[in-house]
Specification:
Layout: E1 4-6, E2 9-14, E3 17-22, E4 26-28, E5 31-34, E6 40-43, E7 48-54, H1 56-72, H2 77-90, E8 99-104, E9 109-113, E10 118-119, E11 125-128, H3 132-145, H4 150-164, E12 173-176
Antiparallel strand pairs: 1-4, 2-3, 2-11, 3-12, 4-5, 6-7, 7-8, 8-9, 9-10
Helix pairs in contact: 1-2, 3-4
């Protein structure tokens, strides 16, 4: 079985709005296995948005653990993410999971990886997955040269990534806070 390759997750923070979106493509080898996967979730009573890239089963295992950490620290998403990263890095089983998460709330945007990385971007823009760099670049340009909202920038940048990255499509879902 060939590894799944896919996913573009993008988050844009502009003004008092944050948007997180993802494409719908799942690719196995050189075949599109699914065109309408949903890779973003609203959790924590609707106060937190998450998007995942990598193995779906691994991402769901991480999302479950993150939800648990968020319930332990309901008003501190940053702390919940750090606790997840520590557990992910030190647990023998979790260390083997191959996924990345983008996590945002009203005030904070974070990327978390199995290497123990918790990164808060300076400009509030996160791009993960195979099409992440394409969407990130498009979003940075749109932020500087347009008056679009965070949601509109996220949608436009994901569409651009879908036109460039062969592991990304233009079946886009976006959530906002």
């Amino acid at each position: 079985m060939q590894p799944a390759r896919s996913t573009t997750i993008l988050s844009v923070r502009k003004g008092d709005q944050v948007a997180l979106g993802g494409d719908g493509q799942v690719t196995l080898g050189n075949t599109v296995a699914k065109a309408d996967a949903v890779k973003i979730r609203r959790i924590g009573g609707g106060k937190v948005l998450t998007g995942f890239a990598g193995s779906a089963a691994d991402a769901f295992a991480l999302l479950e653990r993150f939800e648990k950490k968020l319930s332990e620290h309901p008003d501190n998403m940053r702390r919940a993410v750090i606790e997840l990263a520590k557990e992910w890095r030190t647990d023998r089983v979790l260390r083997r999971l191959e996924a990345m998460l983008a996590v945002v709330d009203k005030t904070t945007s974070l990327t978390v990886s199995g290497a123990g990385d918790v990164i808060e971007p300076t400009d509030g823009i996160i791009g993960i997955g195979s099409g992440g760099p394409f969407a990130l670049s498009a979003a940075k340009a749109l932020i500087q040269h347009s008056k679009l909202s965070a949601k509109e920038i996220t949608e436009a940048a994901l569409k651009i990534a879908g036109e460039v990255c062969i592991y990304t499509n233009t079946n886009i879902k976006v959530e906002t806070l």
